[in-house]
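FW: tagging you since you asked about this chain on Friday. Here's the raw sequence from the shared folder, copied in full. Didn't touch anything.
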Amino acid sequence: MYVAVKGGENAVKHSRRLVAKARRGDNALAQIQVEQIMNQMALAVDRVMAEGSLYDPLAAATAIRQAQGDQVEAVFLVRAFRTTLPRFGNSKPAATEKMRLFRRISGIFKDIPGGQILGPTYDYTHRLIEFEGQESQIEQPPPIPEPNHAETGHPETGPIDEKFIPWVQNLLVKQDLIPEIQEELIGASVPDLTRRPLKLPAGREVRLQNMARGDEGFLLASAYSLQRGFGLDRHPFLGELRVGWATLAYTPPELGFEIEIGEVKLTECFMVNRTNGGEGKKAGLENGYGIIFGQNERKAMSVALLDRSLTKASKGEDRIEYPAQDQEFILAHSDNVESSGFVQHLKLPHYVDFQSELVFIRNQNKGKKYQTKGKAPRRV
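HL: got it, structure written out here
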């Protein structure tokens, strides 16, 4: 606690009581249940899990209720809770190419192995508020039979196993338009940002961790700046967006063999941009990548756009001219807990600091005569 606020300890206690009262709201209304938040505000829960660096829907929903819906405060609560949890080890990297998908689209090919899966999305809804009682008026379309991909297959890859829908990028790799996807294992050798502070310059594995738990609004605005011409030389394309459940596997030391420990909902995104080649390199495509806890599509796309811009700048292929190309700017300012704390600490007492400012101003003006004419002071 600030020394300066110790004298107001009773006032602080009263403030906390008022917070509890405001959080509860009208006692005549039923209290919102955590299960309701988990089920009916799933996208908010997903965002808090992603930015809180903890896959725990129950903790995220509880934090949202406790923070009265303030997601940044909820993220802070989740991160604080995560620090109390024991660490048992590292799971194997999630095999995202084997995800149990409920949404999967591509913006570069109409017909893709496994087909386009629109799934639950607001992309195709009318942006009209549905007030209470109006939900039932929405026409329910008849069920659409699912295509049998095992029979139809794909002209370039043949029959498709329903449990294994390959990446669209594989088509580009086969056509020698993009480098083969690197299967870099993530293990104990990779710095863990939840336990170690950010150090710059950062490798790609650290940059992707940082952005995966960064503030969605900041990353979205930064990616938008690229599209507006501040760092992106040509139009990007959505190679593939996948949302689904990935199985995690872990080898307990006491067992010595691998076991499946559960599933996590993930959003994975590949973005592609044309490159003209030159200097011994042929023309082709470059990709950016993003993977996020939960269904966080805007954020995954933003991370993929920024991944490409930061990677090119880190390799010296692009000059750092704009904020979205500068890893220090993006990585050091995308953490909403840190930035929120730094901004909000201005609400705490700064009496002594401000007095020193006043002393400086008075010393500067001592012995100087000013006359005012109109609104602005003018020195004589």
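FW: The chain has two domains: 9-82, 96-122+145-339.
HL: agreed, and The two ends are 47 Å apart (CA to CA).
FW: great, closing this out.
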